[in-house]
Write a sequence for this structure.
């Protein structure tokens, strides 16, 4: 029986190879399209700024601006000594968290910056660099802003009128996610926006601020401290030590050891006139909500006294209280607007010298070796408390 040539097989093989090649090309094109889609950015007109812009750090020769967008887009910031911001800083990589350092600047000089989100430009915003050796320093202090209702916004407006150089926050910005907190983080930046876009904020971690990871990203890394939730800031003759009372502060703990080294170094620094510590839950508080932090009293108070700390700020209870213990002034300032549905009151103790349950903020004014402190009620501007400290250079490092 004769066998016929299998012509159909030769034809089918060629066709199959062609189909396979076409499939491979299609697959490669599809992969390229996927890669392109993964790195593409949303149309600029559909992107919004959801956090910031805010000042992350200010020095004599620099400032840092941060903001976050709803979708990944390239970073574009314009800046200059003139309001029209003639110099541009751009990065092509699309990101949602934008971080721009402007450096090589002159001290004690007003510069301007502007976000270029939609090509049409936005409002130009001023920032003043630190003086080389600032004699006068104005520090606003507020705490426990929590939910951002009218009281918080009113206090922000009052602080703005005082034209501070920096803002200290004693914790509970409410960075912790969840139903109980709501979307307070974005609300915090919305309400604080008029202040934080020009004034650097140095907060401490509160018990309503999560595990610290977001806190570090927002407030610690921008001024180059690292990953810890406690840090040191120098502003001229002022040394500000920010502590985390959610972590152990005992003598042998990592934070306790760091604090002892830091305070010892500051005590021997002739350039430091005033040493200020900020923490969320303080060692001397008689508020009805929480009372004193006995762990910090045992571990920290001896260090404060040994190394000449002048002033300790705390919050946690939503009230104002000030007292002096063995030469160290302790100020609890938690009246930034949070917790109005469950108000706290000051119960008073042997160290209590002044107190109020009114919402408020504080202002520290340093002029050379003099410090003036004022606590004002929100809305009325009524003075709740004030004191005046003059440091004798002959007594430096001594009580």
């Amino acid at each position: 029986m004769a066998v016929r040539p299998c012509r159909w097989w030769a034809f089918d093989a060629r066709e199959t190879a062609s189909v396979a090649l076409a499939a491979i090309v299609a697959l490669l094109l599809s992969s390229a399209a996927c890669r392109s889609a993964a790195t593409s950015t949303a149309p600029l007109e559909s992107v919004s700024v959801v956090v910031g812009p805010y000042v992350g750090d200010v020095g004599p020769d620099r400032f840092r601006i941060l903001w976050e967008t709803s979708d990944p887009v390239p970073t574009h910031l314009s800046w200059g000594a003139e309001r029209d911001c003639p110099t541009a800083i751009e990065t092509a990589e699309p990101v949602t968290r934008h971080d721009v350092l402007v450096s090589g600047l002159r001290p004690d000089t007003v510069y301007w910056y502007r976000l270029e989100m939609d090509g049409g430009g936005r409002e130009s915003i001023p920032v003043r660099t630190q003086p080389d050796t600032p004699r006068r320093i104005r520090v606003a202090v507020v705490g426990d802003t929590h939910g951002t209702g009218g009281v918080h916004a009113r206090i922000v407006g009052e602080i703005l009128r005082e034209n501070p150089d920096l803002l200290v926050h004693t914790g509970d910005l409410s960075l912790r996610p969840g139903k109980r907190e709501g979307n307070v983080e974005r609300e915090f930046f919305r309400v604080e926006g008029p202040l934080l876009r020009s004034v650097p904020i140095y907060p401490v971690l509160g018990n309503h601020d999560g595990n610290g990871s977001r806190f570090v990203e927002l407030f610690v890394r921008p001024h180059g401290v690292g990953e810890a939730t406690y840090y040191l800031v120098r502003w001229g003759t002022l040394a500000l030590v920010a502590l985390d009372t959610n972590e152990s502060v005992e003598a042998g703990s990592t934070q306790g050891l760091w604090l002892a080294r830091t305070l010892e170094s500051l005590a021997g620094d002739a350039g430091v006139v005033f040493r200020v510590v900020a923490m969320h839950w303080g060692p001397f508080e008689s508020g009805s909500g929480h009372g004193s932090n006995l762990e910090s009293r045992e571990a920290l108070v001896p260090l404060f006294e040994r190394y000449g700390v002048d002033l300790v700020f705390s919050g946690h209870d939503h009230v104002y209280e000030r007292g002096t213990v063995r030469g160290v002034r302790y100020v609890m300032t938690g009246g930034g607007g949070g917790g109005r549905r469950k108000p706290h009151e000051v119960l008073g103790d042997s160290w209590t010298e002044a107190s109020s349950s009114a919402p408020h903020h504080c202002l520290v004014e340093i002029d050379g070796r003099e410090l003036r402190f004022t606590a004002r009620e929100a809305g009325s501007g009524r003075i709740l408390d004030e004191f005046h400290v003059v440091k004798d250079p002959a007594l430096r490092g001594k009580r």
